[in-house]
Amino acid sequence: MLTEAGCLKRRERLWASVPENVEWLLVADPRHVLYLSNFLVQPLSFSGGERGLLLLERDRGATLIGDNFALRSATSDPFVDDEIMEPWYDHKKSVINRDHALLNGLKKVSERLYGRIGAVEAEWLPVGAWEVLGADHESHSTNVEAKDIHQSKRAVDLGTLLRSLRRHKEADEIALTKRCMKAGDAGQARLREIIREGISEFEIYREVQKAALEAAGCPAIVYGDFRATNATNFKAGGLPTDYKLRAGDLFILDYSVVISGYRSDFTNTMAVTEPTPEQAELFAICQAAMASGEAAIKAEIPAAELYRAVQKPFIEAGKEDLFPHHAGHGIGLAHPEAPIIVPHSEDIVQEGDIITIEPGAYLEGVGGMRIEHNYLVTAQGYERLSNHEISIR
Length: 393
What we know:
β15 (about 375) and β16 form a beta hairpin. The protein has helices spanning about 5-15, 30-35, 70, 100-115, 125-135, 145-155, 160-165, 170-195, 200-215, 275-295, 305-315, and strands spanning about 25, 55, 60-65, 80-85, 120, 220-230, 250-260, 260-265, 265-270, 330, 335-340, 355, 360-365, 365-370, 375, 380-385. Mean pLDDT is about 95; it is low at about 140-150. The protein is globular. It starts with a helix and ends in a 9-residue tail after the last strand. The protein is built from eleven helices and 16 strands. By secondary structure, the chain is an alpha+beta fold. The protein folds into two domains: about 5-165, 3-Layer(aba) Sandwich (Creatine Amidinohydrolase, Chain A, domain 1); about 170-385, Creatinase/methionine aminopeptidase superfamily (Creatine Amidinohydrolase, Alpha-Beta Complex), CATH 3.90.230.10.
């Protein structure tokens, strides 16, 4: 889980990034509420899909706003200075629109925000919240000109700013991600034990999920690509089907384990039976591409340059067209997130990024394959976070 020290550090970095005259920030994206306070509605609970709002004030700290069932369904204790828990369900009376309960909680802080310059995460804030905050009420402000308030809200792109700050992972985020990696490693190891002719994609999914959850030691979300490829169906992805593996198939396990909002994402491809010479050749090129990419990882490298490093072995082998997708991407609270490692990326790899290197090859008549590791970018280069074995057999 995230720590209080980590949440406070992230809030400090956020306040340092907004104009000094901004007195309050209203955070609405559930990922960013988590990022700054450790509050997340447990997605596997009956309140899954609900959310809270986080109000940050320079002079009052952090206030979490939500209905009574949402706040009680947190994955762990939030690190805030105050809570506004709005009644929604009491087992005695009918319930109101649950979104209205959230807005009723927001009303309880709206009066103290009037006349003060603030910024909101507009992409996630509903129109109803704007009405509660009183956009039309601002014209009655005696302390600040209404036009100044509107200009400030437009000047601070709070959502984009938070996405940018998210790239530099603090120690608690790295620790949580490593926990996801350990669970992911366990699932990859389980695949090696069970892969055989006749087993279905869905059976593999169930076994991988079980191994990952046992290693995680807590409820978690498991998603990704659990699919077989072969000479005729050489590019497949997504959740598993009832297809049963056959001789000559390759099985791509490209999956993520999500714990408290953070995730891993790494891949291996295994041959169900002895790989053909063509399959082995393509796999070797993917391994060379990963090694080339690893050698290039460093802070401040353009993502497009890192892409070219991964692509180089494909070009040298005369198989450039077999590698059609990104060479990797950032990972954390979203999948994918910056930096995006593609030919025309404008991103720059930064210290504190967690990225993937993900070469793949897809050839009709042979099959499709993909491999992937996860890396923390450091001042010295990188720390590899995933530790599964990458081999075709």
